[in-house]
Amino acid sequence: MAQQAYATETDDGGSDPGRRENRLRRLASRLVSGWRGDRRIWRRGIVTAAVALLSAAVMAAHSHIPNVIGNLGSLLETFLPWLGLLIPVLLVVALVRRSATALIALLVPAVVWLNLFGGLLTTKSAPGGGLTVVTHNVNADNADPAGTARSVVASGADVVALEELKATAVPTYEKAMGSVYRHHAVVGTVGLWSKSPMSGVRAVDIKLGWKRAMRATVTTPAGPVAVYVAHLPSVRVKLEAGFTARQRDKSADALGEAIADEPVARVVLLGDLNGTMNDRALTAVTAQMRSTQGAAGDGFGFSWPASFPLARIDQILVRGVEPESSWTLPATSSDHLPVAARVKVDTSAS
Fold first, then answer.
1. What is the per-residue DSSP string for 44-88?
2. Do 202 and 233 share a domain, yes or no?
3. What is the pTM of this model?
């Protein structure tokens, strides 16, 4: 009897590998036992299969969904990665329904989602990169601007862009960051702090009637870099109007024109664009620049809302410099997470 007990249990009281394997086989057998000889497995789950194929079509052809009614296409593109959550739900339904048709159909949205976002599941960051940049929408109603400033300084970034600066809070940020960043400029509600000298500071007209975008040339050890800071207008989701983003879209076009005319070869855009890289409304900007998160990021890098990030609307985009890594920083008192990137400035670029 003792010999039999020893054969079936390990020293720590658990089951041996043979017993665990037998349990797995029995579980698998239970799952498929009802399928054997069941001729209806191909007829059941037609609706589930149709929903799976429809979700695949929506993901694959999202750019063709019109914005005519409530900017539905842009709204969908803002939260496009989350459509992947439908796949495990449909998988459970297919298993419960014992539908082979639904299970096979589910392969289609799974492949489409992985093709679109699979690259974001793994980190692509690399060591190196001589310039670290950070952008943060600090929130005009921030109750602790000094603490937020200290958190940003602790990132060790070489260049920091802040958006949604309240005029009365600007002195607080200047005081908290001044000892580390000797060069800074504030234009309207956006500001730029740099460890390296800055020149050519000016407002960028994004067709708002007030100043929410700027550019400056930062003279890094590897050469000049044109740094743009922008806070595009907010978008709203309203029952009567849908996804209202007309002003945001107009401003994005103006920002894209300004960047296209930039004479400096190396360009970095930092800011809250109120849209994701998938949003077609930002094409004027995104078509000519690379996302550091997409090229070298760690995961999806969602930045808003800070309490439960659902989308990355805070962006670091580059042209003429090489992204090495990109990540989000710990939450501050803002409703956005700060985002950071490390880039390599090519000394051969002019």
1. TTHHHHHHHHHHHHHHHTGGGS-STTTTHHHHHHHTGGGGGGHHH
2. yes
3. 0.82
pLDDT, tens digit (0-9, with 9 covering 90-100), for 226-246: 999 999 998 765 544 445 667
* 164-181 confidence digits (pLDDT tens): 999 999 999 999 999 999
Cα distance between residue 281 and residue 255, in whole Å? 12
3-state secondary structure 133-167: EEEEECCCCCCCHHHHHHHHHCCCCCEEEEECCCH
Q: Are residues 231 and 277 in the same domain?
A: yes
SS3 letters across 247-277: HHHHHHHHHHHHHHCCCCCCEEEEEECCCCC
- Strand-pair category, 267-272 with 223-231: parallel
Strand 290-291, strand 314-319: pairing: antiparallel
Count of domains observed in the chain: 2
Domain end, chosen from 121, 141, 161, is at: 121
CB 150 within 8 A of CB 164: no
